[in-house]
Amino acid sequence: MRELWSTGWSQQNMRMLAASFLTEFCNIDWVQGARWYEDNLVDADIAVNSMMWQNAGRSGIDQLNFVISPDNGQSQDPSGDYVRRWVPELTDLPDKFLHRPWEAPPEVLSAAGLQLGSNYPERCIENLSEARAACTAATLEMRRLVADTQWNDKDGYDIIVLPDGHVSKVFTRKDLRLTKDGKPAPATRSISADSDRGGSRRWGNAGRRGQKDQAGGTTKLPRHALPEGTSQPGCSAKEQLWTMLKQGGSANAIDLDSDSEV
């Protein structure tokens, strides 16, 4: 936050870390984070900023399928240079405790001139696992209210209506999917694309990885996964999907069935 306030900018990983902490552990509405960043970013774009915060807040059309744990800062800042620049109170801590000052023995804190709760705050959340579990439970409770509606399909995916009136489902994190009766939805690793003729075509793991365009190295969707007339040489997967949607198809979400924590 100090970097954002001082410079009007924040590195991408720091933006995702802040979003994860606010929405996944503090259970604060993503709108609050979006408003703060919109107000402070010099490169603020209302569409991009709102969409990315909504995705982090478990309600976007391309929800983040990972969570950056706030107590694993060393993976994002292994040298400690970032912390020492923007949190100078911790400058004299040994690297071992730089990202986890609450674990430092009293004598180490004293040598670094730190007193938790006085010149450096105590942790606002001590048990991250419990906090995240409570946040997930609250989200599922809310989602059960719409589980048996047009906005949720039988596999627990969110449903959206496209501008042309067609309906499509979008990526929904597996731990947040509920069936129509409000129970956890079974995991699925398949991808399907329904053509405008009503057919359904699927491909497995090999197809999901796509094919390499020998000319430019572009990853493309397999031709058999798209309705006729939509597979175009040189187009990216997103471009081909968008072409398919415009021609009346309905593209189901790409499901990586991944909920990793980094």
From TrEMBL:
GO terms for cellular component: cytoplasm; nucleus. Keywords: FAD, Flavoprotein. Its cofactor is FAD. Binds 1 FAD per subunit. It holds the Pfam family FAD_binding_7. One of its GO terms (molecular function) is DNA binding. Residues 1-137 form the Cryptochrome/DNA photolyase FAD-binding domain. This is Cryptochrome/DNA photolyase FAD-binding domain-containing protein.
